[in-house]
């Protein structure tokens, strides 16, 4: 079957609401390369939307999975528990940038992790309110959509959403929202929408994923911690996309001088296997009664075995350092291209290997150009580079390349990106 034939079958059998970045169909992958059904090899800068920090089919992860599969693949932790779940909790409790004793719970998807973090925060505080931020993405469940700060395509036509969820603007000076303005929004919310005594938690991404790889300013994170402490509320750091070496730290919260109370994890935690979790202060995590947390597939033993191998790979293959190196190389390359106004390269931002750039209208200072962005993604795929766009204005190109990519292949990818930018510029 080729790409065209598979696309026809997909149109007949799969719901329209599932979108695609490309109409190329994967048939094989290895490390940072992926082959489509027509035999084309693409360098993978998407990483399964941040799932493959350790690359496709890393040998150590595959070996760990095979070993666990030979023992058993499922029992449900709530029915008959098992050691891999406990071992992974011990590892993450020790690694999490949270002072004191920590505990963890494991689930299957990032949205589940977010839902359970909210449940835990409400159980601990006895309060219902949650404040999220514009541009944030927290999943496709009803609570996840309620928290998400972007309407199209995630929330369009799916309401009404759960109550007691409020939004403030996320600070992004490049698009006209200063830290002071974002903090003013919070004060306004407390005066007009929610009594701070009813606030259970703030939830935010240290680096927004779908929102455009916009980094939370340190001064904003610091002030948020002060506000939360003043009102007896918690901070939930959504690290579903930013965790597991992507920013050059194991957790993106390690870049800040304040700490979250709860951290959600998913995506690259499982090296390609479905797994998510919530890590937090023990006294907070223990607020729900026995039976209040869990899920049939939560903390599946095969996925837990994969996650333990992921941690081993990150630590023993120096992927934190590698993330920083790749991010720096990408920034430098984009700064060079930014000098050519016709290419439409806007703000370059991110932490470590979690980097992105905006595609803007040539000649403007920061006018988003989503049409040019779509053309760039298609042009790059034609040249053998798989890209992902994101952002509130759908004009940001993000980098989620496996951190295990070779230097030579990364250089080739940058060359293909430049040629794609030039091709799009020539057509406009």
From TrEMBL:
It comes from the Bacteria. The keyword Transferase applies. Its cofactor is pyridoxal 5'-phosphate. PROSITE patterns: AA_TRANSFER_CLASS_3. Keywords: Aminotransferase, Pyridoxal phosphate, Transferase. One of its GO terms (biological process) is gamma-aminobutyric acid metabolic process. InterPro entries: 4NH2But_aminotransferase_bac (IPR004632), Aminotrans_3 (IPR005814), Aminotrans_3_PPA_site (IPR049704), Class-III_PLP-dep_AT (IPR050103), PyrdxlP-dep_Trfase (IPR015424), PyrdxlP-dep_Trfase_major (IPR015421), PyrdxlP-dep_Trfase_small (IPR015422). GO terms for molecular function: 4-aminobutyrate:2-oxoglutarate transaminase activity; identical protein binding; pyridoxal phosphate binding. It holds the Pfam family Aminotran_3. SUPFAM superfamilies: PLP-dependent transferases. The keyword Ribonucleoprotein does not apply. PANTHER family: AMINOTRANSFERASE CLASS III, LEUCINE_METHIONINE RACEMASE. Belongs to the class-III pyridoxal-phosphate-dependent aminotransferase family. This is 4-aminobutyrate aminotransferase.
């Amino acid at each position: 079957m080729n790409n065209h034939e598979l696309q026809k079958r997909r149109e007949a059998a799969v719901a329209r609401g599932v979108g695609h970045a490309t109409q190329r169909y994967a048939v094989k992958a290895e490390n940072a390369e992926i082959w489509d059904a027509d035999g084309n090899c693409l360098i993978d800068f998407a990483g399964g939307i941040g799932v493959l920090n350790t690359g496709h089919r890393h040998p150590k992860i595959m070996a760990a999975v095979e070993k666990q599969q030979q023992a058993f693949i499922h029992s449900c932790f709530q029915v008959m528990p098992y050691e891999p779940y406990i071992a992974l909790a011990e590892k993450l409790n020790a690694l999490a940038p949270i002072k004191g004793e920590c505990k963890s719970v494991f689930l299957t998807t990032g949205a589940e992790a977010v839902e359970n973090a909210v449940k835990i925060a409400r159980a601990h505080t006895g309060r219902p309110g949650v404040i999220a931020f514009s541009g944030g993405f927290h999943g496709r469940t009803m609570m996840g959509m309620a928290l998400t700060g972007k309407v199209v395509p995630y929330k369009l036509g799916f309401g009404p959403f759960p109550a007691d969820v409020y939004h403030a603007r996320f600070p992004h000076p490049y698009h006209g929202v200063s830290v002071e303005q974002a903090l003013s929004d919070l004060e306004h919310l407390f005066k007009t929408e929610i009594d701070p005594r009813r606030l259970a938690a703030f939830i935010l991404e240290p680096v927004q994923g779908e929102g455009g790889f916009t980094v939370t300013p340190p001064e904003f994170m610091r002030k948020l911690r002060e506000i939360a402490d003043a009102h007896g509320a918690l901070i939930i750091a959504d690290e579903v996309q930013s965790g597991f070496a992507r920013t050059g730290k194991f957790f993106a919260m390690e870049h800040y001088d304040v700490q979250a109370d709860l951290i959600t994890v998913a995506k690259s935690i499982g090296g390609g296997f479905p797994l998510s979790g919530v890590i937090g202060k023990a006294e907070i995590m223990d607020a729900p009664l026995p039976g209040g947390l869990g899920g049939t597939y939560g903390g599946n033993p095969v996925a837990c075995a994969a996650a333990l191998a992921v941690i081993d790979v990150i630590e023993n293959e120096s992927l934190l350092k590698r993330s920083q190196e790749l991010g720096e190389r990408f920034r430098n390359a984009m700064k060079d291209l930014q000098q050519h106004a016709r290419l439409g390269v806007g703000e370059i931002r991110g932490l470590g290997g979690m980097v992105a750039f905006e595609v803007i209208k040539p000649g403007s200072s920061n006018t988003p150009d989503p049409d040019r962005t779509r053309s760039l993604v298609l042009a790059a795929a034609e040249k053998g580079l798989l890209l992902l766009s994101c952002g509130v204005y759908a004009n940001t190109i993000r980098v989620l390349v496996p951190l295990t990519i070779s230097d030579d292949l990364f250089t080739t990818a940058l060359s293909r990106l430049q040629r794609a930018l030039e091709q799009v510029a020539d057509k406009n």
